């Protein structure tokens, strides 16, 4: 019983991982927008990278951006910039990981 359950859990994990890889792609950007450095971050001399996951609709527009890591003062500017980006059209929704350096 436990062997079958363990196999099922492993098989399901592999399936989910494969589905994630298939939906993650490297569509080329058609239009980018640089992040606007926040004034408070300048005053506080904060710099660094913000890692984001962006969901791209089939028409190439960015519909959702989630912050994976990075300083909170920089994250808002990075999200705002990536939401303005435009990608090549494709047949389905996809996700891409992005890093914004401030």
Short description:
By secondary structure, the protein is α+β, with helices and mostly antiparallel strands.
Write the SSE topology:
Blueprint: H1 2-23, E1 29-31, H2 39-43, E2 49-56, E3 62-69, H3 72-83, E4 86-87, E5 94-101
Antiparallel strand pairs: 1-4, 2-3, 2-5
Summarize the structure in words.
The chain is an alpha+beta fold. It has a single domain (27-101), classed as 2-Layer Sandwich (TolA/TonB C-terminal domain). It is built from three helices and five strands, in the order αβαββαββ. The protein has helices spanning 2-23, 39-43, 72-83, and strands spanning 29-31, 49-56, 62-69, 86-87, 94-101. The strands form two sheets. A three-stranded antiparallel sheet has the order 3-2-5. The chain has a two-stranded antiparallel ribbon with strand order 1-4. The longest helix is centred in the first third of the chain and has 22 residues, at 2-23. It starts with a helix and ends with a strand. Mean pLDDT is 79; it is low at 2-23.
């Amino acid at each position: 019983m436990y062997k079958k359950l363990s196999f099922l859990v492993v098989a399901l994990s592999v399936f989910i991982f494969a589905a994630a890889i298939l939906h993650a792609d490297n569509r080329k950007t058609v239009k980018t927008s640089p992040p606007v450095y926040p004034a408070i971050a300048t005053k506080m001399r904060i710099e660094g990278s913000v890692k984001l996951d962006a969901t791209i609709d089939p028409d190439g527009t960015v519909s959702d951006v989630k912050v994976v890591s990075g300083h909170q003062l920089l994250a808002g500017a990075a999200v705002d910039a990536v939401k303005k980006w435009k990608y090549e059209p494709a047949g389905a929704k996809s996700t891409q990981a992005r890093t914004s350096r401030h």
